[in-house]
Amino acid sequence: MSKTISLRLASSLRNRMILIFFMIIVVPFLWFAYYAHVKSIEGISNANLSMTNNYLLQVRKNFQNYLGALNEQVNDLIGDKRLQDLLEPASGGAASEESFTVDLLTWLYQRTSSVDAFRVSVYPIDLGRHADYLSTIGEPNVGAQAWFRQSAAQVSPSWYLKLPEKGRLERPLLSYVKRFSGLYDQTPRGIVATDVSEDQFKRFFSPSGQMIEQRLLLLRNDDGVVLYDSFENGWTGTPFPSSGFVEQFRAGSEGEKTIALGGSKYLASFVRMDNEPWAIVSLTPLKDLTGTIDEINRATVYFLIGYLLCCVGVVLYITASFTQPIVRLVRYMRKLESGDYQQQIPPSRRQDEVGWLYRGFGSLIRKIEGLIVEASRAERDKKELEFQVLSHQINPHFLYNTLESIRWKAEKHGAGEVAQMVASLGNLLRLSLNQGKEITTLGRELEQVKAYVQIEQARMGRPIRILYGVDDELKELPFLRLLLQPLVENAIQHSIRNDFESGKILISARREGGDIEIDIIDNGGGIPPEALAKLDMEEPPGSRSSESAKGVGLRNVNNRLKLYFGEGYRLHIETGPEFGTKIALRHPILDKEEKSRPE
């Protein structure tokens, strides 16, 4: 019993639609929501990591360029001859010490403006001889400071972090200290201390702006002490709070790690500098990266609940509004398959697709009934037309026989010209009709031209000189009827009629690949430009102007060629009063079966 019920439920279109909704919409949506959540966090982290690494590499490049430029600027100061002369060891009294102080301070004021730093200080190696100078610059006890003693004892330059002191410094400074000697001897003469403040650091260590709480740090490799902190120098002068991360950037040139600081998780990235024992570190709170994901998850849950409710409502609506009417329509269609064309389809006032189906099905039944009636009537009409066609075939034979009788009587009474003219007319009529077929042969088409020329010669009483240059093998090829005669007629009527003595017409044919090329050439006065311009124009019904009459034959042939074989087979005309007219006609070589194809 349960198996029967389950099969019945599975056969219901409504139940199947519900199952389909769950299988192809709801289930994939749940899976996609979970997958999107995981991949969103991963993608955002990777994207931020990639962006941060690129940013750190650019910061390192710019900062190293700055340090290189700063070193060059300091070297320029050291190499200045005026500074070398001022610090050259020499004896002197109080007057010379006062002059030394004024001269050195003046030189510093003039030259240090070119150094891109917060402050530049110059200290003589022999501090005892320049006590007044040290007092003037506010550092009388500079010789007791560790950084000065260490710099005075070594040749290589060093960096020292100067932290704020009461009454002395208000903010941290990173000082580049370099001892220098004479230009032409190795005697130490002084020390240049170049202080870099946070104003210079901010030009290179400002957060990218895409993360609100991103933090950029400059750390010393050996002990992990923070030399600069972009967040108001909060950690400057203190060790970095994650020793594990310090060990990591000591071991590699660049990398990243998720670390916990102060109860919050951060995505930490670093790159080590090439020329200095420092590392540039970026800290990005993970909550800035994944905070919006949590909001999206909550919105997804609410959306899914509403989505399920809407799906159930949609299924019920579709079942009541579409499934049941379609089931009824299927019943009507099955009756129609059994041959019941008299069934009545209830009218539907619905304006949607179901209503159109009902009205269209009813209209289809009525049309089928009408088609059955029309098919019977068409069968009867077909038989009547066949009888009429057989009857009308008698008329051309009667016309041929009548023309033959006229020719015979004309010959009997000695009217040979009339007999010849009637015979040519009968031959022309026979060739033109071509037994109702549209395709004839090139030979029969030439015979039709010759019959027409004979009629024209008899009618005008003047000989028409026309030459034919056509090989016998081409005469058997299939050819569209009534193409050459209109063109020859046009040449006679409009080109050589006024000068039969010297007027000539040449018809030549040759094979060109898969086509027959036919040239009709005359030496008359050419085709008027206005008639030639109307070759592709359709004349209005009833038009009988002289210019229209001159181009009707050409236009007829040209249009028939295009309609039957395409645009590539139109007439090509060269005409002019000085050389006459040349009409080039191109006709495809058809299969032999085309010759017998009816019109």
From TrEMBL:
Compartments (UniProt record): Cell membrane
Domain Histidine kinase span(s) in chain numbering: 480-591
Transmembrane segments: 18-36, 301-327
Keyword terms, alphabetized: ATP-binding, Cell membrane, Kinase, Membrane, Nucleotide-binding, Phosphoprotein, Transferase, Transmembrane, Transmembrane helix, Two-component regulatory system
Keyword hit for Phosphoprotein: yes
Reaction equations catalysed: ATP + protein L-histidine = ADP + protein N-phospho-L-histidine
One GO MF term attached to the UniProt entry: protein histidine kinase activity
Signal peptide: none
The protein's name: histidine kinase
